[in-house]
Amino acid sequence: MFARIIPIVIKEFLELKRDKWARFRLIVPTLVQMLLFGYAATYEVYHVSTAVLDLDHSQESRELISRFTSNGRFDVVKVAQSQREITEAIDRSDAAVALVIHAGFAELLRKGQNAPLQVIVDGTNSNTALIALGYVGTIAQGFAQDYASDLAERVQGVRGMKQIQVTLEQRPWFNEDLNGRWFFVPGLIGTLTLVIIVNLTAFAIVREREAGTLEQIMVSPIRPAEFILGKTVPFFVVGLGEVALIVAVGILWFQVPFVGNPLVLLLGSALFLLSSLALGLLISTLCLTQQQAFSMNFFLLNPFFILSGFAYPISSMPQLLQWLTYVNPLRYYLVVIRGTFLKGVGLGVLWPPLAAMAAIATVLLTTSILRFRKSLE
Amino acid sequence: MSGDRQAEPQIVAENLVKRFGSFVAVDGVSFQVGRGEVLGFLGPNGAGKSTIIRILCGLLRPSSGRALVAGIDVARDPEGVRQCIGYMSQKFSLYRDLSVEENLRFFGGIYRVPNSELPERMRFAISMAGLGGREKALVSTLAGGWQQRLALGCAVLHRPPILFLDEPTSGVEPTSRRRFWDLIHSLAADGVSVLVSTHYMDEAEYCHRAMLINQGRLIAVGSPQELKHSALGGKVLLLECESLGPTLAALAHAPGVLDCSVFGNALHVLVSDAERSLSELPAYLEQQHLRPDRLERIDASLEDVFVQLIAVDSAKQSAAA
Questions:
Q1: Which residues, in sequence order, are bridge partners of residue B197?
Q2: Nearest-by-Cβ selection for A212 from B92, B98, B110
Q3: How far is B122 from chain A (nearest CA, A)?
């Protein structure tokens, strides 16, 4: 029935074997990106360059500032003497955060009143600004609480007129230290595999079209399904190798724990690879030149990446874009990866994303088979 | 001989038309190719030769007309003819990163040549291409002539009774071209019908019959002998002289002269009556103070025939337009 798949598979492997550049492309950029993302892609904010203007010169103002300098989140890079110097520091990006303590700060505190701490942040990087502001708030709050109980003790001579507070008992599950790397590195398995596999397969047919070999294939009795499936198998094997490489680096190098069932991850990876392959092959049947395939790739991959939940939460997206994520195989694969790596959940929980990927792969593969015509028109 | 071949047509084209938008690439072409016949398609680049071959292979659908290959209507059942045909496209189409052997095994595989027969057929293809001892060489390392012969070997690996060769010898050096034509003839001798296109006019001599195509239309067909004798509608005289330009101009109006063209450093003069022109032309030229060094009757080459026919046809076309 599908006897002609085998010669296609053999041929693809031989071509891949002879193509030194392809092997390089499969391994080196993967490792480089893995390391880049692993080390550089983090939302944590440390060492925020900070400018300080203390117009109060009081014990209290110095105490507050020292809480910032001793914390590790903020680096005081400038002690300003005037408001103008603060403006300059922010303008020139010397500082991302500026703290201004106005004269009378301590006096207000001593009277038991609210004392303002002015915080200026460079909002051009809104994410960093938001996170830095959060830390500023935490530090200021801590200072205020300590000061208040201290004051109460001194004024009333009692050990704190029992202050009422809601205390948070934070228990992040699956990633107790909220380590950002544990979030990013498993996600990389999906994004890097998608990029590599789609890139590889998008050229698989179009290259033959340009070389003239496709015309020779078309006049042969081969069936479109045999040709497309013959192209699928080798790239599937290569893709599994890629996944194994990235998983190994994630676990062995970045020490991301893997608590789930490896077989569930394997199944998810297989289904995801089939969807990615089918997407690439579909691009390849639609394009007449490698140039076209290249631009189509470029055009498609970014939306897949953005609408996956790899970096940006899907729940914050507008409804229309949330719907689009439902046809994105990467969305489902990330659920499977994070579920197996960190949560250790099994098929009972993960069957819906697995089924969704199977459906996407089937639709895309069928479409590329139907799209592939043995005709030059 | 030619009559026997026509008795069993393997390829039949009836009034084939192919339009690409408003451009008519093939304009009502009909012909037949018999078993074991070598039919040559000749004509300038862009005449429509490749388009006709691609229609016959089922790669393009005709806009109208009918194409039967091995008795099957190609437009209706393109898959039905695949197993019966071998095809070599204009563009070299083997896998360059694969060795000689790997390419043959690949094509053997997609045509499902039985494993029991494959080694024997591969040996045949390798010896035919003259590639004995180079089975492991990558195709990209082979010279042009070897590549072409290997491509032919791949195209006939499944022993198709019908072979389409689209400019197989373009860009190949003359000795290799000669060898290639010998291969075509040995295949034809085994009963394979061959439709081969070329833009080398001299290669028409190697065909049983040649068809001349210009601007999508068939303008002459026949054996090389027939074409040389009758297609021109006159006899050819060779004229050598010192002043080619003025002589050419003078001859245009000379009595009995149908046409005149420069051929190397001489003129080929097409006349209706060779004997009469041989005796009258010297005197006519004398009047114009022109003196030919040599004037004699020659056999028309196929190139004469084609150059003449295409010039006349193109003139007719532009006059009509």
A1: B41, B166
A2: B92
A3: 15
Q: Which residues of chain B are within 8 Å of residue A376 when distances are taken between CB atoms?
A: 54, 59-60
Is the reported ipTM for this assembly greater than 0.90?
no
- The fold for domain B233-299 equals Alpha-Beta Plaits (3.30.70)
Chain A residues touching residue B106 (CB < 8 angstroms): 7, 10-11
Q: Do A211 and B93 touch (CB under 8 A)?
A: yes
User: Residue A321, exposed/middle/buried by CB under 10 A (0-12, 13-18, 19+)?
Assistant: middle
Q: Locate the chain B residue with the closest alpha carbon to A11.
A: B106
**Maximum Cα interatomic distance, chain B, rounded to a whole number of Å:** 79
**CB-count burial class (<10 Å; 0-12, 13-18, 19+) for A264:** buried
| Best B51, B57, B93, B115 residue to mutate vs chain A (most A CBs within 10 Å) | B93
The full set of domains in chain A, from first to last, is: 5-41+175-371 (no CATH), 48-156 (3.40.1710.10)
Count CB neighbours of A201 within 10 A. 27
Q: Which two tokens stand for residue B148?
A: 């072409």
The number of C-alpha atoms within 13 Å of A256 and in the hemisphere containing its C-beta is 29
pLDDT in tens, A194-239: 998 998 898 888 999 999 999 999 999 999 999 999 999 999 999 9
Q: Are B231 and B42 in contact (CB under 8 A)?
A: no
Domain with CATH 3.40.50.300 in chain B: 2-224
Domain with CATH 3.30.70.100 in chain B: 233-299
Rg, Å, chain A Cα set: 29
- For residue B79, the one-letter residue type is E
Among candidate residues A267, A280, A242, the one with its CA nearest the CA of residue A357: A267
CB contacts of A211 in chain B (<8 Å) are: 93, 96
Which residue in A195, A190, A372, A218 sits closest to A294, CA to CA?
A195
CB contacts, 8 Å: B102 with chain A: 11, 14
Chain A residues bordering chain B (beta-carbon distance below 8 Å): 3-4, 6-8, 10-11, 14-15, 18-19, 211-213, 215-222, 374-377
Spatial CB neighbours of B273, under 8 Å, sequence gap ≥ 6: B235, B256
How does pLDDT run across A237-275, given as a tens digit for each residue? 999 999 999 999 999 998 888 888 999 999 999 999 999
Strands of the sheet with A118-121, listed across from one edge: A74-80, A48-54, A97-101, A118-121
How distant, in Å, are the alpha carbons of B43, B44, B78, B257 from that of B19? Answer: 19, 19, 19, 38
Q: For residue B152, what is the nearest residue in chain A, using CA coordinates? A: A216
SS (H, E, C) A202-267: HCCCHHHHHHCHHHHHHCCCCCHHHHHHHHHHHHHHHHHHHHHHHHHHHHHHCCCCCCCCHHHHHH
CATH 3.40.50.300 fits B2-224, yes or no: yes
Which residue is closest to A1 within chain B, CA to CA? Answer: B112
Q: What's the pLDDT at A157?
A: 62
3-state SS, residue B59? coil
